[in-house]
Description:
The protein is α/β, with parallel strands linked by helices. The protein has helices at residues 13-37, 42-51, 56-63, 67-72, 74-84, 152-162, 181-201, 215-227, 251-255, 264-274, 290-293, 310-322, 348-363, and strands spanning 96-98, 115-120, 135-138, 166-169, 209-213, 236-240, 299-304, 327-332. The chain has an 8-stranded mixed β-sheet, sandwiched between helices. β3, α6 (152-162) and β4 (166-169) form a beta-alpha-beta unit. The protein is globular, with a radius of gyration of 21 Å.
Amino acid sequence: ARGASSPRGRRCPRLCGICGGLAGILAAAAAVLVGLFLRFTPSELSFVERLVGASTEGLYYGLGGDGARTLRNPVALERLRASQAVARPVDMPVMAHEVPVTPSASTPPPPHLDWRFFLPANATGAARPGGAPVLLWFHGGGFVCGAPEYEASWARVLAHESGLPVLTLGYRLAPEHPFPTPFEDAVAAVRWALAQLPSCCGGDPSLAILGGTSAGGNLAAAVALELGSEEPRPAALLLAHPVLREPRDSPSYRKYARGYLLTDELMRDFWGMYGGRSDDRRTAPLAATAEELARSPPTVLVAGEHEVLVDEMDEYCAKLRGAGVRTWCHTIPGSIHAAFGRTPFTGALDGVRAAATELHAVLGLRPASPTGE
Length: 373
């Protein structure tokens, strides 16, 4: 065993400082090259640099350049999680107000559940009889990172652009808590939220929308399949950049394997750390039978044109439609993974607005208005 006194175990502060500085420069240069390659505007590129943070680990992770190494390093992974737990919106106007939620004493929340509730700042009009529709949202992060705090800026955008209240829901993370724990947490969280909506959020469970981004989209789709015909259950699904099966050698995985934020290597590490199973609909919704898919609520799916997950989104759309489920799919032109709702990215808000309009139509509501009119 190598002790702290070992010459190889000691670190030279000056050398570490030089190496850290060079790594930071290289990471910044990588950000610029990625931006040029994807034709980001200056504001988009600036947003990417600030979104992933100033730390070398954060920048590498966000760009997919050295993210796999970060995931395999417990200290770096914990540092990344800590930075996400205190994330704040970046150059955003007030889009939604966070409102405290007091759970009903008769239905206490499941253990380990974190939640945050946002009301759109542009909300107008009287309360709906019986309660309002509410969007229940799971954060992304490859099943291994992310938090409701990190998703707060995204939730505010969704609330503002859709005109819907948003309740973000957390779950325990791999690799400390691999499958089935995150899935079971998600099922328990949705059942609890549906029971809570009338008393804590002024919501109508029969109008609840379930959704998430990336790994959160996977959990949302899997939960909807698990609930099946159970009542109450979500009235609609909104899946943004969802993970719907195991990583495989598909055209989009080959074409966008590197340089498009979410890499092939990262996705395989995420899946392995989660403990995903290719033949189990609880981790791979595409493995569901036609009969199981037929019980899914109307579904809205969104993905970036340039991301490894776009092929599986298209395949899931086709399977849902084949099972008779009302399905709407949208590819954000010129975009990459996680762009949905990230305001500086071209087409990001257009995708949110189009999805919100379809959700309002599904629920029989008036179309969403970004101005609240």
